[in-house]
Every structure is written in structure tokens, then in C-alpha cells.
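Exam revision sheet. Question 4 asks you to relate a sequence to its structure. Input first:
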Amino acid sequence: MTDGAAEAEGTAGFIFEMGVLKNARRTGWWFTGNNQPESIAEHSFRVGVIGAVLAMMEGVDPARVALMCLFHDTQETRIGDIPHIGRRYLDAATNQTVTADQVSAAHPAVRDGVQGVVEEYEAKETPEAVVARDADKLECLVQAVEYRAQGNTLVQDWIDTSLSSLRTDSARALAGAALTMSPLQWRKTFLS
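Answer key, C-alpha cells:
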């Protein structure tokens, strides 16, 4: 097999592996009695949308933020979604290590690009990384508000933890709005 064919196969393999995220569930919600929580892919999609929106509000690069958001949980194909309480008892590989393994056979530009995005997210230093991390927390808060509206009363800890983790003014403003409205309020704007 030529180098180009091997790189294409390695990159295609990474793409197939990312499909696992469509079936893998966010396990922290199980503690609230939710046996059919959102998938990691569903979570990551909305994190990306929230990240782009927050980036626009904060005046940073929305494409860079959305890219970090898209790749922030890709490692969970290998290690699963370990609930925060479970992390106390496990010594899992870092997200950077898992990502390096995931893209080790991919095209060099893909390998470098994905690893760079994950490293920036995990370093928490750039304004884009701060916004991307806020997007992750804000998505958790919004999901908890939706689950609460569906009758789940055990989500308050997720709301409180997410809210206290937000670092940007824009994320705090959106969280405040989300906490005071119905998840379906957006429909009323267009149906009235």
C-alpha cells in the first residue's frame, strides 16, 4: 500500500470511529434517572453551535471555537463518557494522548490539525479555548433545563455546576436567559 493510500485509509478509519459518538450516550445523566440521554454526537453538535454564537458575542474567532467544540469529546470513542464522580477512581489517558492515537494513521495535515485543536482546548489559555469550554458547560446547562422541563427534577446539580463554571459574560448572560424561559419559548416568537 502506498503512503497516500495508507494515509487515506487511516483518515477514513478516524471518520468511521467518530461515527461511534452517534451511539455513545452521555452517562452523567444516568444519575438523574434518565436512561436515554443525548448521545455524545448530539451534545457536541450543540456545543459547536453554542461555541460559534458565544465567539461572535465575545469577539473571537467563531470558526476556531466551533472546531474545538466539535473535537472536544472525540476521545470518548476510546474511553467512554466517564462521569465526573468516576474520574476520582480512574487514571485515564489524557485527551491529548487518546487523540494522538486516534489520528496516528491519518493524513499528516489531519493528524496535526486535530491534535492542535485538542491541545488548544485542553490548555485553556487562548480566548477561543475559554469560549469553547464555556460552550461545553452552557450546553450541559441548556440540556438540564430541557430535561427539567420534561419533568426530571434531579438536574439542579448539573445546572448549578455548569453555571458556576462559566467564565465569559456572554455565557453567563445566555445561561441567565435559558434559566428563565421555556425551552419552547422560541416558537412563540414566530407563531404569534
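Marking note for examiners. The chain has a mean pLDDT of 95.
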